[in-house]
């Protein structure tokens, strides 16, 4: 099934879901396969090191430093990777309320990581288009 590309259809049909728990962003040395047992929700190889998004509890258990905690909001609509404007619309709406949006696009859904203290407000904002 192909994802939706029409921005208005994406915005009107998405039902944002707040995922249970808190997450952290961290950077490490080594390769992603060394950390798969941590079950990261995202990984990206950058020039400066390996960036992971992991559960806060995993970071604490493994003595990983982090600056802030985040909550994951999944936009429960099958957005196409070729859709234009969804990230911009979501980021703009949250930014207008002083909330940063760390967006990760996966095959089926877009996932927005917001500071934990702003999660409920962000969920409300994204639920109302």
TrEMBL record:
PANTHER family assigned to the protein according to its UniProt record, in alphabetical order: BLR5128 PROTEIN
InterPro entries named among the record's database cross-references: ACT-like_dom_sf, DUF2241
Lineage: Bacteria, Pseudomonadati, Pseudomonadota, Gammaproteobacteria, Vibrionales
Domain of life: Bacteria
Domain DUF2241 per the UniProt entry, residue ranges: 2-71
Name by which UniProt lists this protein: Transporter
Pfam family, one: ACT_3
Gene3D superfamilies: VC0802-like (3.30.2130.10)
Organism this protein belongs to: Vibrio diazotrophicus
